[in-house]
Amino acid sequence: MAKKNKQFVEKVTAMEDDFAQWYTDVVKQADLVDYGPVRGSMIIRPEGYAIWENIRDILDAKIKETGHENMYFPLFIPESMLQKEKDHIEGFAPEVAWVTHGGDEALQERLVVRPTSEVLFAEHYAKIIHSYRDLPKLYNQWSNVVRWEKTTRPFLRSLEFLWQEGHTCHATEEDAAKETRQMLDVYASVFEDYMAIPVLKGKKTEKEKFAGASYTLTIESLMHDGKALQAGTSHHLGTGFAEAFDIRFSNEAGELQPVHQTSWGFTTRSIGAMIMVHGDNCGLVVPPKIAAKQVMIVPVAQHKEGVLDKAYQLKEQLGSIARVDIDASDKMPGWKFNEYEMKGVPIRLEIGPKDIEKGQAVLVRRDTGEKLFTPIDELETAIPELLEDIQRSLFEKAMKHREEKTSVATTMEEFKNSLEQNPGFIKAMWCGDQQCEDQIKEETTATSRCIPFEQEKVADTCVCCQKQAKELVYWAKAY
Ligand SMILES: [Zn+2]
């Protein structure tokens, strides 16, 4: 059995040796995805899709609680419609997929497979919004989008991914600003309170903002290898799309005015973040609140009389307090232990003849490996407490990691040294000039991640040009 276990673990490259390979191995071994027939596309397997469904349900409830309604738009966009907003098309043109034929016939006008749906919503809003009484309009859609990426990785960057995109219209600039911030806070809550991933909230620089937006708000998270990942964005679109698509309303004074818009998106990329923040060399570690299965019962010596009966009885009994499953297959317990460690199930519950004799079960935490011998009649209180504790310690561990991996730099030399010696976030002052941003990227490959809402002054001068600094920026190499 020992030999078998070893082989199983060897399928995953150690993260210290090659983090990218570790990620690919875990995604595959935990059975989250398979590769699709077209390069860069992915098949999301049940184990992966169940996690997405949990995240989606949590976020969908919050979207509805904040007054939004779900709807659905078509997949294709006529080329001429995408051309209407110039910055937008320029931003997306390099990565759109085109449809040129319907059956055997060449189309009169090429179609785009949606890379995002701003223009579809805009065209629709122009039709349905006339008066201030029609505002605000708060719509959201859950869908797939296609972006023809050159380099791809499952969840992180794939040709097609799943997401939600919210698109709203407001009477005033301030209302749109409030909405933009509200939805960023919703995203931050999903990451922090459910996925146990701490995020930095802030604003993107002009260079990094969404194509066609007035400004973009972002939440940024730090992965285990010290690289940042943009976890979700919320855009204030201003009146750009409203002008281009003629979305106007008459205000109370009867004057015709363009609406102020927002859009915001949250994608299956979040699963990539979960893997890279919590995972270890034994595989996935899934936070209890989004785990498909929270407790996996593994009967030990299940051929012995009474073991399976007891195991099924526990599944029944605990089913109302947690998402519980049982593996009663004839595979060896050691194989099962590894399997559910790989899949990141938060708690393993072992039950064998000796345990039954003692009236106990063995609870094993996925995050720490700690074994807890627990009386059977205390399981109903012990399990929810343990799940909560795992959830909390995953967040704390991730927060500690981020703090350890955050450095301050006041000169380019410090900047480069930090990136080399302790890769992670770098806090440095910036003059606000894009030239410095470009130069930092060129010299270090780090990009500006966000201008945090919580500003600090770590120096008086720009880390790059040493002129008067305007604001603090978080920088990092990023996915
Ligand atoms: Zn500068």
Automatic annotation (TrEMBL):
Which SMART domains does this entry report, sorted A to Z? Answer: ProRS-C_1
Tell me, which GO biological process terms does this entry list?
prolyl-tRNA aminoacylation
Location in the cell reads: Cytoplasm
The reaction(s) annotated as catalysed by this protein in its Swiss-Prot or TrEMBL entry are: tRNA(Pro) + L-proline + ATP = L-prolyl-tRNA(Pro) + AMP + diphosphate
Which species is this record about?
A: Sediminibacillus halophilus
Q: How does it assemble?
A: Homodimer.
Protein name listed in UniProt:
Proline--tRNA ligase
Cellular component terms per the entry's GO annotation: aminoacyl-tRNA synthetase multienzyme complex; cytoplasm
Which one Pfam family would you cite for this protein?
A: HGTP_anticodon
Q: Which GO terms describe its molecular function?
A: ATP binding; catalytic activity, acting on a protein; proline-tRNA ligase activity; transferase activity
* Subcellular location, principal: cytoplasm
Q: Does the keyword NAD apply?
A: no
Lineage at the top is: Bacteria, Bacillati, Bacillota, Bacilli, Bacillales
Q: Which residue numbers delimit the Aminoacyl-transfer RNA synthetases class-II family profile domain?
A: 39-287
Q: What does this protein do?
A: Catalyzes the attachment of proline to tRNA(Pro) in a two-step reaction: proline is first activated by ATP to form Pro-AMP and then transferred to the acceptor end of tRNA(Pro).
